[in-house]
Amino acid sequence: MRIEIDDLTRPEVIALLNEHLANMYELSPPESVHALDLAKLRQPDITFWSVWDGDGLLGCGALKELAPGHGEVKSMRTPAARRRTGAGRAVLAHIIGVARQRNYQRLSLETGSSDAFRPAQVLYESAGFTRCGPFGSYAEDPHSVFMTLQLPSTRS
């Protein structure tokens, strides 16, 4: 399994992100969908990674800088046929590691509140994320669960 910074041009990655967006609109009302499209993922404040096994795409994830010291996990997705391979856990650990390297004090995320999002919530909880209130430009929403992870400072 290899994790690499991705330029969002490969057909497999584009297809996975399109699947992700379509699925989010199936599971949540439009005003509660916070998944980013390709154009928004290509912004300079976002780093996007893809996870591969040879030529097979196992998943993806991104890190958005919200403010100095605060990042947001975005676009975590694993293709349905590749779930339970450890790719989600691997890319989340990678994102947390990069956030630490950037000296972020906090890493946050938004995910859905319905039962379909429970596996994602369990993954985030297993990495140390805890529920919190809305952050950044988010507002309270019954379709959203907000989570955060405090990161110890690596500066001496």
TrEMBL record:
Pfam families, sorted: Acetyltransf_1
Keyword terms, alphabetized: Acyltransferase, Transferase
Enzyme type, top EC level: transferase
Residues annotated as domain N-acetyltransferase: 3-152
Transmembrane segments: none
Highest taxon above the source species: Bacteria
SUPFAM superfamilies documented for this protein: Acyl-CoA N-acyltransferases (Nat)
GO molecular function: acyltransferase activity
Listed Gene3D superfamilies: 3.40.630.30
The protein's Enzyme Commission number: 2.3.-.-
Protein name: GNAT family N-acetyltransferase
Biological source species: Caenimonas terrae
